[in-house]
Write a structure and sequence with these properties.
Layout lengths: L4 H22 L6 E3 L6 E3 H17 L5 E3 L13 E9 L1 H5 L6 E8 L2 E9 L4 E5 L4 E3 L2 E3 L11 E4 L8 H14 L2 E2 L5 H9 L5 E7 L2 H13 L3 E3 L11 E6 L4 H13 L3
Parallel strand pairs: 3-4, 10-11, 10-12
Antiparallel strand pairs: 1-2, 4-5, 5-6, 6-7, 7-8, 8-9, 12-14, 13-14
Helix pairs in contact: 1-2, 4-7, 5-6
């Protein structure tokens, strides 16, 4: 380990807080909006400004570490060895541009490709989730995953999004969720959905598609530190390069995994 994980957690907290506060300045304001890969794949000047704030904060303490991010010219793959940072200035930009409060700023510190510290700030909601190596917290208070074991009492969230030519897979996953579980949620910020699993509000969040590391690494770490389980679509331990993500309390993981695999069954 190249540095104290507690130090990295402190910097992650500072960076996520600063980036979230910068994004909050433009929330529900007159901010320039562009699209990337599709009509609802948004990027805003707030994303870029928040990312600059996050990067500058990290660089103050770790000037030489690689930083993997969604915007600007940052690398988009996680190094397999050594320290690095994985950041998302606004996860849930579609919510952000619509004036919805469920968006986050996520910062994770990784070592040899594995997260060692993570913070997810939800500034419009006044919440900050954090995890180092000894548990997870919300606003400084310890959190843990749900203890519900009856799928009919569980709320499960299909997370991420499926490309236009794969929407039948989303339909199959959503159908499996509403048939197998008590309730279905879709919130629009993968990091926030993962934080809600860690906090016991959701029982699982699932997808059978590849995810960008900035959408998932921080939240996966928080879930695990809160006592939950995170696997890929095959049920193997999840990594940032895995296909699919199934993050749950552990109590209903097998059922969540089966619902996720329904997407594969619908693939043409």
């Amino acid at each position: 380990m190249t540095s104290d994980p507690a130090e990295r957690l402190a910097v992650a907290r500072e960076a996520a807080t600063a980036g979230g506060e910068r994004a909050l300045q433009d929330f529900r304001g007159d901010v320039a909006v562009e699209t990337k890969s599709g009509p609802t794949d948004y990027v805003t000047e707030a994303d870029r400004a928040a990312q600059r704030t996050v990067v500058e904060t990290i660089r103050d303490s770790f000037p030489d570490d690689p930083i993997v991010g969604e915007e600007d010219e940052t690398p988009n793959s996680v190094p397999e060895s050594g320290p690095a940072w994985v950041i998302d200035p606004i996860d849930g930009t579609a919510n952000y541009v619509r004036g919805m409060h469920c968006w986050t700023t996520a910062v994770a510190a990784v070592e040899d490709g594995e997260p060692v510290a993570a913070v997810i700030a939800a500034p419009a909601l006044g919440d900050l989730y954090a995890a180092g190596e000894d548990g997870a917290t919300r606003n400084g208070d310890r959190i843990s995953v749900a203890s519900r074991s009856d799928p009919q009492e569980a709320a499960v969230c299909p997370t991420l999004w499926w490309s236009r030519d794969r929407r039948e897979e989303f339909g199959a996953v959503a159908d499996a969720v509403v048939r197998s579980f008590g309730d279905c949620r879709r919130i629009g910020s993968a990091q926030y959905e993962l934080a809600l699993v860690a906090d016991g509000a959701l029982d699982a969040t699932i997808a059978n598609v590849f995810a960008s590391p900035w959408d998932t690494i921080a939240g996966a770490h928080v879930v695990r530190q809160a006592g939950g389980r995170v696997t890929d679509v095959e049920g193997e331990r999840w990594r940032h390069d895995a296909r699919g993500i199934v993050a749950s309390s552990g109590e209903i993981h097998d059922e969540a995994l089966e619902a996720t695999q329904a997407g594969d069954g619908a693939r043409q």
